[in-house]
Amino acid sequence: MFCVCMKRILYIVIIALLILGAVVFDRLVGFKFLDNWFGQKPINIESRSVIKEESAVIEVADKVSPSVVTVSIKTPKQTFLQFSPFGGFSEGTRGGETQDIGSGFIVSENGLIVTNKHVVSGTGTYRVITSDDKEYDVVSISRDPNNDIAVLKIDPTASSGLKPVVLGDSDDLKVGQFAIAIGTALGEFRHTVTTGVVSGLGRGITAGSAFEGYVEKLDNVIQTDAAINPGNSGGPLLNSKGEVIGINVAVAYGAQNIAFAIPVNVVKKALESYSVTGSFPNKAFLGVRYQTVSKKTAIANDVVAGMYVVAVVDQSPAQEAGIQVDDIITKVDGVEVGEEADLAELVAKKKPGDKVKIDFWREGETKTVEVTLSEVES
Question: Residue 277 — pLDDT band, cuts 50, 70, 90?
């Protein structure tokens, strides 16, 4: 009896070892017959990654879309004369219609919204529309003179229930990390969601167009391949956690998958400045137009290198200090201006009311004047 029991136990052990060996062999060489027996399906790592990425985008879109707004403008209605070869002159009208022009995002529960300065540069009545199609009148606009940033304020009594975004940290960005953009693409398709990566950091660009009446140099911006179109301007660029990492500002015309965003830490500093007085400080103003004279050009023309003054604004600090057309400005507070240090950048670091010493060259002589900078409206 004992021998029979031992034999049964031995048979069971042998069968168990055979099954275990078959499982190991199946995993090593890739035979799938045991998978069919036990109903186990192969794991598709690529499919799992796609599902994870899709889930992140869906989660961010659901979380942040209520905080993203469309900016619209109603321009004044204007009457003008139009000519037809069949009927001569007749009276026509333009304007008076409401049009979606850009995007923005809510940064406080009491009705503060961030967008681009160039989005709200026109003349008219502005409104913002939330994702649930509620419309709010913009009661005030503050434009940052040093950045393409503006803060819109809507009526706080009508803005209950607004959901502000979470501002991230753009100093921690890495090239290649995931990026999501939300905005009103082409001024028509509200709450469009696009995805991509951070393609580059520390870029310098010129945003806007001289033909549109807006041109501004922007430094240290984020480059992304997330699709950003006209109308996306002012909307948020987000990371996979739904935190704002930048404010979409420009696209590169003539190129594909190249767009730019102002780092969110620049936005944070602008909001800190705004929170103190409820407005942005005015930019320091000198009042000259100029061209750069390189060292090579200076030597060829027997002049000095610096900034050649081509125009002086009437009643400006520069005119009052005696600076004239054809002068070449060489230093500001002892710092040489030229190819490495731009005059506008040095003035931008000053505040209205600051006194600066300006050295300039005129007809073979170097002169120094003290200029009290004024302020210019943004």
Answer: confident
Query: Would you state the structure tokens that stand for residue 212, as one six-digit string?
Result: 């549109």
> What are the pLDDT digits (tens) for 138-183?
999 998 877 889 999 998 777 678 899 999 999 989 999 999 999 9
55-68 CB burial, b ≥16 within 10 A, e <16? ebbeebbeebbbbb
User: What is the distance of C-alpha 101 from the center of its chain?
Assistant: 16
Q: Give the pLDDT of residue 222.
A: 93
Q: Give yes or no for a contact between 237 and 221, defined as CB atoms under 8 angstroms apart.
A: no
pLDDT of residue 124: 87
Which of 29-33, 147-151, 168-172, 230-234 comes out lowest in average pLDDT?
Answer: 29-33
User: Residue holding tokens 């200029």?
Assistant: 371
DSSP structure class, residue 226: S
Cα torsion through 121, 124, 130, 135, rounded to 10: 160
User: 187 is written with which tokens?
Assistant: 């001024």
**8 Å CB contact between 138 and 153:** yes
Taking a C-beta distance cutoff of 8 angstroms, is the pair 199, 256 a contact? no
Q: Which domains does the chain have, with CATH numbers?
A: 63-80+91-158 (2.40.10.10), 166-277 (2.40.10.10), 283-376 (2.30.42.10)
Q: pTM to 2 decimals? A: 0.64
Q: What residues are annotated to the active site? A: 118, 148, 233
CA dist 250 and 272 (Å) reads 24
The DSSP H or E segment spanning 251 is strand 243-251
CB 75 within 8 A of CB 97: yes
Question: Residue-wise over 283-304: b if at least 16 C-beta within 10 A, else e?
Answer: bbbbbbebeebeeeebeeeebb
User: In this predicted structure, what is the pLDDT of residue 238?
Assistant: 95
Rounded CA gap, 248 and 6, in Å? 77
CA pair distance 95, 78, nearest whole angstrom: 6
Highest averaged pLDDT of the listed ranges 23-27, 36-40, 90-94, 329-333: 329-333
Q: Determine the 3-state secondary structure of 58 from DSSP.
A: helix
d(CA 60, CA 245): 13
